[in-house]
Structure formats: structure tokens, C-alpha cells
Write a structure and sequence with these properties.
Elements (H helix, E strand, L loop, with lengths): L8 E7 L4 E6 L4 E6 L12 H14 L7 E7 L9 H16 L6 H16 L6 H8 L4 E5 L6 E5 L5 E7 L11 H19 L11 H6 L6 H25 L3 H17 L6 H11 L4 E6 L7 E7 L3 H14 L6 E5 L10
Length: 345
């Protein structure tokens, strides 16, 4: 159940003759040029240029004709912070390139093509959530997404006197180089083992109840048990969180955020000391309703739901806590639920 935030990736583009794409990333002061006729997956760790190439590859694979283009990229989204900068880059690039090609691609399809680019070209086995959130988010609402059927609906995220604080731990993480793919493999292994134990074919862990996982604990490696339990409990928390938001119950929503972080820390094991300190400091502050890490983990950001009146207090506490540990001061952003992809000009 994601929501877009008030940070943005902006790409401006114009057609050019030939089949080359020239892209200038202003924030990084980097440029690249590549041919649409020679798109090859990265042999080593990918960089931002591979996400652009992957989008071009996915669009061509889907039968869309692309021509050369000049792209200018500017962003206020921190890179490697777990705030979906890669998905934002993919969707913005796909929107510009398809527009230049005069191809009217529905937003859900555009999101799926961007996921394909990241999965099959870049080599990151990400799910579809980030791409759908970037493509389809609305202001003041969260996106409740069924990642299997791809059905989605909007949930009111009316914060009133509250706001969302995003705290960047400044611990950089690369999704493709992290243990993200390994977690996907562990969940697949859990599905196979539970299928054998329960005597029925399972497509995913969402088809298993928490009681069934507990019954199978003796036959599951401890690591696989933890992963299974986290996935099932988190699915339950998402649905309960949606109910809380529909009824305007922000304290319950905040509670589920905090429980989610505990699961990510203890069961899925994708947190880190900096993220745990952020959550602990936030939850020890009166006026904070809940907090959790966000993104794939192993660094990046946490998000807290809090009363606006305690923004300065929590910011000061977080900076002091990081300083006390000898860490870089965290970057802090304040946001509400924002609109996703916007195409114009």
C-alpha cells in the first residue's frame, strides 16, 4: 500500500534524427549516449544508464517503434535511499519516449513494461509495486494494490494535523547488489517446502495461513520460517491498515507501521542499525504515531507518521542520536501523499 511523495524525477525530451539516445543527468553532472540498435544488459553492477536502456529495450520488445531522443533529467529524489528513484526514472523515461514515438500506452501497461526492464534487462527481481505507485498514485490517497491480480483501489490518506516525515539514514544501498534477490529466492523456497508439507500446490505464500506456517515450523529451516511468517503477517497488516485509513483511525495505522518495522527487522531481516535507531527514536517521541523503514532495506530511508507540532523536536532528536553514534546527520523531508506520473508540455 504505497503512496507517492512530494519529491520528483523530471525528464524533458525531444526527438533527434537517427537511433541514438542522448541523456544528461544534471544532478549527477553525467551524460550518456547509446544506440537503440545495440541494447545489451549490463555485464557488471548496473548504473542509471542501464535503467534508461532497459526501458528502451522493453518498449521495443513490446513492439513500439522508438526513434532517437535528447533527454534532460533532473531529480529531487535521493538515489539509493529506498524512495523508488529507479522506478521514477523508468516511468518518466518511458512516458517521454512513448510520447515522442506517438504511442498512447495505458499507465498500467507502462508500469508493467518498466518492471520488465528492471527484471529482465537490469537484473533486479523487483515486484510491481514501485512502478504502479509512480504511475498511478493520487494526491491525498494511498494505492492499495494486489500484486498478483494487479487490481488496485485508492484509500484516503487524510492526515489532518499529522504529516509524514521521511528520514534518510544516508546509508547507501544498491537494490541489485543487496540481498533483495536472495529474499525473493527464500520466499520461493518456502512456497515449495510448504506445498509439500500441506499436500497442495501453492503459487505463493499468500495462499498459506499463519496457523499453517506455525504447524510447519518443525520442517522449515529457521530462516525460511521467519521469511514465511513475515510475508503472511505483513499481508494481514496491509489489509488492516487500509481499514484503519478508511475509518480515519491514524493511531491504528501508525501502530501497524511500527509492527511492520519489527517484522522487517526481526523476521525478514532487511533493516540496519541506522534504520532501527530512527524508528526507536521516533516511537519514543510523544506525538509520533508510528514509524518503519521503507524500500528494500539494508540502508535508505524510514518514514514516520507524526503530529506536525513535533516535527522540530523529532528532527533534533534524530540528529543528536546520529551524532552520538558518529554517523552522518540524516536528511529529513516532510511530505503528504502526492500525485504520481504527470505528463505535459
Amino acid at each position: 500500500m504505497p503512496a507517492a511523495i512530494e519529491l520528483a524525477m523530471v525528464i524533458q525530451g525531444r526527438s533527434r534524427s537517427g537511433c541514438e539516445v542522448f541523456a544528461a543527468a544534471k544532478n549527477m553532472e553525467q551524460e550518456t549516449v547509446f544506440s537503440l540498435d545495440r541494447l545489451k544488459p549490463p555485464a557488471e553492477a548496473p548504473d542509471w544508464t542501464d535503467y534508461l536502456k532497459g526501458v528502451c529495450w522493453a518498449l521495443k520488445q513490446a513492439g513500439y517503434f522508438l526513434g532517437g531522443a535528447d533527454l534532460t533529467i533532473e531529480s529531487t529524489i535521493p538515489i539509493g535511499a529506498g524512495l523508488s528513484s529507479s522506478a521514477a526514472l523508468e516511468l518518466a523515461a518511458a512516458a517521454v519516449l512513448s510520447s515522442l514515438a506517438e504511442a498512447a500506452i495505458p499507465l498500467p501497461e507502462l508500469a508493467r513494461l518498466c518492471q520488465k526492464a528492471e527484471n529482465e534487462f537490469v537484473g533486479v527481481r523487483c515486484g510491481i509495486m514501485d512502478q504502479y505507485a509512480v504511475a498511478l498514485s493520487r494526491a491525498g490517497q494511498a494505492l492499495l494494490l494486489d500484486c498478483r491480480s494487479l487490481e488496485y483501489s485508492y484509500i484516503p490518506l487524510e492526515l489532518g494535523s499529522c504529516c509524514l516525515m521521511i528520514i534518510d539514514s544516508r546509508v547507501k544501498r544498491s537494490l541489485s547488489a543487496s540481498a533483495y534477490n536472495r529474499r525473493r529466492e527464500e520466499c520461493a523456497e518456502a512456497t515449495i517446502l510448504l506445498s509439500r508439507f500441506l499436500g497442495r500446490r501453492l503459487e505463493s505464500l499468500r495462499e498459506v495461513s499463519l496457523d499453517e506456517v506455525r504447524e510447519a515450523r518443525s520442517i522449515l529451516p529457521s530462516r525460511i520460517y521467519r521469511r514465511s511468517r513475515y510475508i503472511i503477517e505483513e499481508n494481514m497488516r496491509v489489509l488492516k491498515s487500509a481499514e484503519a485509513l478508511r475509518s480515519g483511525d491514524l493511531p491504528s495505522f501508525g501502530y501497524f507501521m511500527t509492527r511492520s518495522h519489527a517484522g522487517l527487522r526481526d523476521l525478514y531481516q532487511v533493516s540496519c542499525s541506522e534504520l532501527d535507531l530512527i524508528v526507536e527514536t521516533a516511537n519514543a517521541t510523544k506525538g509520533v504515531l508510528g514509524a518503519r523503514m521503507t524500500g528494500a532495506g539494508f540502508g535508505g530511508c524510514a518514514v514516520a507518521l507524526l503530529e506536525k507540532s513535533v516535527l522540530e523536536e523529532l528532527s533534533a532528536k534524530l540528529r543528536h542520536a546520529f551524532s552520538r553514534n558518529g554517523w552522518l546527520s540524516p536528511d529529513i523531508y516532510v511530505t503528504s501523499a502526492a500525485p504520481g506520473l504527470q505528463i505535459g508540455g
